[in-house]
Design goal:
The complex is a heterotrimer of chains A (about 500), B (about 500) and C (about 120). By secondary structure, chain A is mostly helical. Chain A is built from 21 helices and two strands. Chain A has helices at about 5-20, 25-45, 75-95, 100-120, 125-135, 135-145, 150-180, 190-200, 205-220, 230-235, 240-250, 250-260, 265-290, 295-315, 330-360, 370, 375-390, 395-405, 415-445, 460-480, 480-485, and strands spanning about 55-60, 65-75. In chain B, about 75% of the residues lie in helices and about 0% in strands. Chain B has a domain at about 290-490. A two-stranded parallel ribbon of chain B has the order 1-2. Chain C has about 120 residues and is an all-alpha fold. Chain C has a single domain (about 5-115), classed as Methane Monooxygenase Hydroxylase, Chain G, domain 1 (Up-down Bundle). The chains are: A mainly alpha (about 500), B mainly alpha (about 500), C mainly alpha (about 120). Chains in contact: A-B, B-C. The interface of A and B includes residues 133, 165, 169 and 171 of A.
Chain lengths: ~500, ~500, ~120
């Protein structure tokens, strides 16, 4: 029994309680609140000076291949766990009023949260995979039942089919990786994989195609260009708590997986690095321009979240496992995952609140709200700046480290492909500044158009979760050592 | 402890008693027949745990054509559970049956008594087939199953669809039997034996005609595969499936889809197994894989367009046959650490639970809302949250979402296929699973997104509730803890 | 050439030959009746008059009776070889041969009772 068991099963207990008649919203708030405290407790119990997984608990289930319900966290999963519990808490608190099927609504949200938390805490690959898919059907229902927009049905299908196919490709990749590491019996135990990969290694050719399969599988889940088509419309249509959880937390699952498995496949990364560089530039530049073209706040946020994934992939691409060296790009990628998760959650949360109040999110039809709702616009501004990479926020420290990683080892002369990519990716920062600042100006500054319903200010109980998110961004922004020390290497 | 074949005898006797009772006790309510059948089968199911095979030195003739091994016992239990659930479903389906028996019946319930006890004979056939290890005994058991299905499929005699289904099933069933027996006779002709174990032993002998004439042997196996292909609904022998599934009374469709398919796979595995370690293995495996790939692809893609829930499940049943064939095709790769029997049993066990739940819901909806189209499922979450909930679990399990039996079965199939390096089929399977998500979730969408046309609710009896909850529990438990089934088959 | 199968060939020949010979004989002997007339073309003795539809509807009872006949006919097919080798079985003490046939006949008997009760053999009404 570990504290992680509690963190995973508390939301599931909440689901059961709601199904048997407990008041939905209160239960969901209470459960995620306790979970937040438990997550912080896990951080307290975690010993940053040690390598390997801590707070472990394991219960064997299947002998061949060896599958166990096993939990444990290392630095990387701790950061992800903190991200999940913080965003889950805020998502429940910021959920707007629900008219129909309120029970289903919160059950779905809790399932998404439980899936994300479970995936980050599992050290057994079967459960790592399975917990992630736990969120698939709730997302489908959330968009379908409570989504907005005429074409929400098509959008729900799109995200579900994309993610389902991505997952099944991922499953194939994971099973193939397992087959390569079967010396000593098939197992899904992650630590056993690590050990076997370190001891025996994997044939270079196998590394290549397994890495590619995993890159595609995880890539679809992270909306890697050109598999990104599901993401922006889905986040635009989904109810805001779902967007918060999905864009903020669940999407990080794919990146988390890549960061986890790439050390076993160093040559695979070498083989496909150039491809990865091209794709991530697609994310940053192509999606960057797409984002600029958006007229709606929610679809702009959706696109921006796709775009920012590119930086994290850049961190991955700059990771030189074979040659060794300072994994600063890796550390930056992790920080950026955290920072992006928090900032996009805050943006989606506020966007949902705004929608509830003004009934349109078209940026041309909004304006001058800054005077009416100062607190709201202040919070939104902070989140937008964080997202655009203003110093002082977690995103900035992450991005800087990623760029350093990209230029690592440069000693003059001509630029390598990676460095060229880094140079181009830097322009992405300008692009995000363009669309974020423009959105802020359009919505909160300038003249208030005629006929715009004046929104009311953010209620006190809504300010608490927002404040929590902002504090998280600032703490890690000013003191990234808190997290970077947790990461080994 | 008692000899295992007492169970089949018990089921047959139960069926005969109910048959005579139905004919002579005219005053009794016909649903009593089904209830007695359910109780009787439950007793048999319990006694399944107390049976034994031949004692040491017991060489009674029956043991030469009747196997008692984990596989036999598992599929006997499988047949019993299926039949019990089919009988429960048939209780819920009575009003529909009654409607199609015509208005000239003198009193309610007349004419549908047979519907409640004929499944028992099918069950006995399925149970026998699980144990059959002699080609004659296999054939007899298969015919017992098929012939009772001929009657049951066409049971609603005032319904054109049911009659059409009956005729199609009769003709194609007879055709497939023809192929099957033809294959068996070639096998007998080549080996001179009817006992499967002796045929397997003869394979090791280089003088055997089976070794000397590999083409003849392959022809025989191909014919057997064709015959079984009809039973398990594999492409290109699947053409009858949608029409027959749609026309037949829903409980019988469920029975066909689960019982008949499982029996086909048991028989197929028992006959084919020795040949996977043989010189014809490459061709045989290629044949099975080709059928498997086509089945996965066609089943899944054709299901996408269906608007009738029963036809949708018919195509889904085809696609699952493809996955099971893929598992069968992995038999020859000796490197596989997971044994094929275990995986097939696991897959079929999960398939039983999820398919029967889906058909059970369909029975209730058909009886109370009068339609089998997907549009009838609109707003089911309002009409009956319970039904919508269990159907949701069944659908996501069929689609293969983790923590359900459907996922774990597919995962093992993938595992074996990857180890055998069947990459092309795996790619097809990925496409199939993707399509599967679409059409299974179409049902979920109808239940949860769309609004009902009226506010009529659906009533569910306690018995049905218990049955469905048991199956849902089975889906979830198998999805996390399939070890009992796998251990049963571990060497 | 496998001589074991010779009797089958002989049977084929006899069956075919019988058909051929009877047809031939009727042609040869019927020569005197070559001149046709209306009276001669009519059915005689127990034959039916060829009047009405070519495919008249029969009562379903015919089929029922025919099927029941086939069932009991098959029973005899099973009983005959069983009876032939029964003595041998009893001598060897294989009583299962007796009980299995008892079971078979018993099942058929129950089926017969069922058919009787359901009115399968009731011709009127």
């Amino acid at each position: 029994m570990s504290i992680l068991d509690l963190i995973i099963f508390l939301p599931l207990l909440g689901v059961a309680a709601i199904a048997f008649g407990a008041p939905a919203r209160t239960t969901a708030k209470a459960v995620t609140g306790v979970n937040l405290l438990l997550g912080l407790a896990a951080w307290y119990l975690f010993d940053g000076s040690k390598d390997g997984f801590q707070l472990t608990a394991s219960r064997p289930l299947i002998p061949v291949p060896e599958i166990a319900y096993a939990v444990g966290i290392d630095g990387l999963s701790l950061i992800m766990l903190l991200l999940s519990v913080i965003v889950a808490f805020c998502a429940m608190w910021m959920a707007p009023a629900v008219e129909r099927h309120e029970k289903m609504y919160f059950i779905s949200l809790l399932l998404i949260a439980a899936g994300a938390i479970g995936a980050f805490c599992s050290t057994d690959i079967f459960f790592f995979y399975a917990f992630h898919e736990l969120a698939l059907i709730p997302t489908f229902l959330m968009i379908g039942i409570w989504g907005k927009g005429e074409d929400r049905s098509a959008v729900a299908w799109k995200i579900t089919i994309y993610l389902a196919v991505g997952s099944i490709i991922l499953l194939a990749g994971l099973i193939a990786l397992q087959a390569q590491l079967s010396n000593g019996g098939l197992t899904f135990d992650f630590e056993a994989w690590q050990q076997r990969a370190a001891n025996d290694g994997i044939a270079s050719a196998a590394q290549g195609w397994i890495f590619l399969t995993l890159l595609i599988g995880f890539g679809i889940l992270v909306s890697l260009f050109p598999f990104h088509a599901w993401a922006a419309p889905a986040y635009a249509s989904a109810p805001s708590p779902t967007s918060m959880l999905h864009a903020g937390v669940l999407k990080k699952f794919g990146l988390y997986g890549l960061l986890r498995f790439t050390p076993m496949l160093p040559e695979g990364l070498e083989t496909w690095r150039n491809l990865l560089i091209v794709l991530l530039l697609g994310n940053i530049l192509f999606m960057g321009f797409v984002t600029i073209a958006q007229r709606n706040l929610d679809s702009m946020l959706g696109c921006s979240s796709v775009m920012h994934m590119g930086y994290i992939f850049l961190g991955l691409a700059s990771w030189n496992i074979v040659a060794g060296g300072d994994p600063i790009g890796y550390t930056g990628a992790v920080l950026l995952m955290f920072g992006h998760g928090i900032s996009i959650a805050l943006l989606f949360g506020l966007c949902g609140r705004l929608r509830e109040r003004v009934s349109t999110l078209e940026m041309d039809r909004l304006g001058g709200l800054g005077k009416q709702v100062p607190v709201f616009s202040f919070l939104f501004g902070l989140a937008a700046f964080a997202s655009a990479g203003l110093p002082g926020f977690a995103n900035f420290s992450g991005e800087v480290m990623v760029f350093f990683g990209g230029f690592q080892g440069y000693e003059g002369g001509s630029l390598s492909r990676l460095q060229w990519a880094t140079v181009l990716a830097l322009w992405g920062v300008v692009i995000s500044a363009v669309y974020m600042l423009r959105a802020y100006r359009n919505i909160f500054l300038g003249e208030q158009p005629d006929g715009l319903k004046v929104p009311s200010e953010l209620a006190i109980d809504q300010r608490l979760p927002c404040a929590l998110l902002v504090v998280a961004l600032l703490v890690i922004g000013f003191y990234p050592k808190l997290f970077s020390d947790l990461l080994p290497l | 402890m008692m000899p295992a074949y007492y169970l089949e005898a018990a089921v047959v006797i139960l069926g005969l008693v109910l048959m005579v009772m139905e004919a002579f006790v005219e005053k009794a309510d016909k649903s009593l027949i089904a209830k007695m059948g359910i109780v009787g089968l439950l007793v048999v199911l319990v006694s399944l745990f107390f049976v034994s095979g031949p004692a040491e030195g017991d060489d009674a003739p029956i043991w030469s054509f009747y196997a008692v091994d984990p596989m036999a016992l598992f599929y006997k239990g499988f047949a019993l559970v299926t039949t019990i659930l089919v009988l429960i479903m048939s209780l819920d389906y009575r009003s529909v049956l009654q409607h199609y028996m015509g208005a000239d019946q003198e009193k309610p319930g007349a004419g549908i008594g047979e519907f409640h006890y004929l499944p028992l004979f099918t069950c006995a056939g399925l149970m026998w087939m699980a144990s059959a290890k002699d080609i004659v005994s296999i054939f007899v058991a298969l015919e017992l199953v098929t012939i009772s299905f001929y009657v049951l499929v066409a049971f609603m005699r005032r319904n054109v669809g049911s009659l059409e289904a009956g005729v199609k099933y009769l003709i194609l069933g007879a055709l497939s039997t023809g192929f099957f027996v033809y294959g068996l006779t070639w096998l007998f002709g080549l080996s001179g034996e009817t006992e499967l174990s002796k045929i397997a032993a003869a394979l090791g002998n280089d003088d055997s005609a089976m070794v000397r004439y590999p083409k003849a042997l392959l022809f025989s196996l191909a014919m057997i595969l064709v015959g079984l292909g009809f039973k398990i609904a594999a492409v290109p022998f699947q053409i009858w499936v949608p029409d027959v599934y749609q026309g037949a009374p829903t409980p019988i469709t469920a029975f066909l889809s689960v019982g008949s398919k499982a029996a086909g796979f048991v028989v197929g595995y028992r006959i084919m197994e020795p040949f996977f370690a043989n010189h014809v293995a490459p061709q045989l495996v290629t044949l099975i894989l080709a059928i498997s790939g086509a089945t996965i692809l066609l089943g899944n893609l054709a299901a996408v367009a269906q608007e009738n829930f029963k036809r949708l499940l018919a195509y889904s049943s085809i696609s699952h046959a493809g996955f099971l064939l893929l598992a069968l095709g992995c038999s020859s790769s000796t490197t596989s650490p997971v044994n094929v029997e275990g995986v097939m049993a696991l897959y079929l066990g999960g398939y039983l639970a999820m398919t029967l739940v889906a058909f059970h819901v369909m029975c209730l909806v058909r009886a109370q809302l009068g339609s089998e189209d997907l549009s009838a499922y609109k707003g089911l979450s309002k009409r009956s949250p319970f039904l919508a909930g269990v159907l949701l679990v069944a659908m996501i399990s069929l689609a293969g979402v983790p923590f359900t039996a459907g996922f774990i079965g597919k995962m093992y199939v993938f595992l074996m296929a990857l180890q055998s390096r069947y990459f092309v089929i795996i790619a097809l399977a990925v496409v199939g699973v993707g399509a599967g998500f679409y059409y299974y979730l179409k049902v979920v969408r109808a239940m949860y997104w769309d609004d009902a046309a009226d506010d009529q609710s659906v009533q569910i009896s306690t018995l049905s509730k218990v049955a469905m909850l048991t199956m849902v529990a089975l889906i979830v438990i198998l999805g996390i803890y399939p070890t009992p089934i796998l251990n049963l088959f571990a060497a | 050439m496998n001589t074991d199968y010779l009797p089958i060939l002989v049977q084929f020949l006899i069956a075919g030959g019988f058909a051929a010979v009877t047809l031939l004989i009727s042609v040869v002997l019927g020569k005197t009746a070559q001149q046709r007339s209306e009276v001669k073309d009519q059915a005689y003795e127990c034959g039916m008059l060829p009047i009405g539809e070519t495919q008249p509807r029969f009562s379903v009872k015919f089929y029922l009776v025919a099927m029941l006949f086939v069932i009991f006919d098959i029973e005899v097919v099973f009983l005959y070889p069983w009876a032939v080798s029964f003595q041998e079985f009893v001598r060897d003490g294989v009583w299962v041969a007796f009980y299995s046939m008892l079971g078979f006949v018993g099942i058929l008997f129950l089926a017969y009772l069922y058919a009787l009760k359901k009115g399968a053999l009731r011709w009127s009404d």
